[in-house]
Each structure stands twice: as structure tokens, then as C-alpha cells.
Amino acid sequence: MAAAGNQRSRMPSLMTTPSRSRIPSIDRLPEGFTEGGAKVTYDNTYKIGPDPEKRFLQAPVKRIVEETFASALEGRAYDPDSSPHLAREISKMVLDRIRSELPYQRYKIIVQATIGEKKGQTTRLASRCLWVPETDNYASITFQNATFFCTCLVFGSYIA
């Protein structure tokens, strides 16, 4: 019994906070700890939905996408070699602007841009999503000129 008691005294207690002296060759603090060694705790917000003023709305997203289309696509002609790169660039520009300008902190934002050549055909884009209609939403915007079209779908899914 005495050996077991001795063994327990040599084991570090789980209730103590880590210090730099007990962590060999540390380059950075473990996640969740401050410089003084105190553990950082976060209170649960118990939020199951966004604040009414921070819900995903179509109008501001459409404005951002239309401005991006105007700056990136005006005066261009369809080029099959550069279209995939251009679609990725448009998606990235839209995503960056939405994240920086709109208050969607707890939303997963997904942007999909599609560019296609116009040759008198009819094109339909379809998507299916599983989401909560009270918190999640999407915006769909299309740009057209004489030689190509570009459709941008922006989905906002609330993450609890």
C-alpha cells in the first residue's frame, strides 16, 4: 500500500495548471492556456440561432456579387482556357468580400461560380441542400453578355 501511495505522489495532478517548466522544449503554449499558466475557459452562449440583425440576407449578398461581376467580367469575351481560373477567382473575391463586409460570424459561407459559353442553348443550374429554413439561406445571381454567362450561388448555413 505504501508503494501505491508513493506512486500517486509522483504523478502530476490533473487539477494543476501546466507551467513551462513541466513542458519540455516548448515553442508555444498549449491551446487554451495563457502566458501565466491559467486555463482559458469560454462560457457557452446557448445560442441556437443567429441574432435577427445577423441573419443571412439575400440583398447585401446580391449587391456584393453584382459589384464583383461588374469589376471582373465587364468587357470580357468567353475564353475556354481561362474560364476555370476566372470562376475560382470570382468565387474567392465574393467569399472574401462577404466575410469582410457582412456580419455572418457563425455562418458557413459557400460560393460556387459557373462560367459557360453562350451559343443559343438553354442552361439550368440546380442544387439541393439540407438545411434549416429559419436560419439558412442562399442567393443566386447571373451575369450575361454576348459570349458567355456566369452564375454565382452563395449559400449561408448557420453553424451552432
What do you see in this structure?
This protein is an alpha+beta fold. The protein has 3 helices and 3 strands, in the order αααβββ. The protein has helices at residues 2-10, 58-73, 83-101, and strands at 107-117, 137-144, 148-158. It has a 3-stranded antiparallel beta sheet, with helices on one face. α2 (58-73) packs across α3. The longest helix has 19 residues, at 83-101.
Annotate the secondary structure layout.
Elements: H1 2-10, H2 58-73, H3 83-101, E1 107-117, E2 137-144, E3 148-158
Antiparallel strand pairs: 1-3, 2-3
Helix pairs in contact: 2-3
The main sheet comes to: 3 strands, antiparallel
Mean pLDDT across all amino acids = 83
User: How many distinct beta strands?
Assistant: 3
Name the helix and strand elements from N-terminus to C-terminus, one letter apiece. Answer: HHHEEE
In the sheet with the most strands, the strands line up as 1-3-2
Overall shape: it is elongated
Fraction of residues in β-strands: 15-25%
Work out the helicity level: 25-40%
In angstroms, what is the radius of gyration? 26 Å
Total count of helical runs of at least 4 residues: 3
Unreliable stretches covering 5 or more consecutive residues: 5-9, 11-16
**Helix-strand makeup class:** alpha+beta
Distance between the termini: 49 Å
State the main characteristics.
single chain; 160 residues; 3-stranded antiparallel β-sheet; 3 helices; 19% strand
In short:
With 160 residues, this protein is of the alpha+beta class.
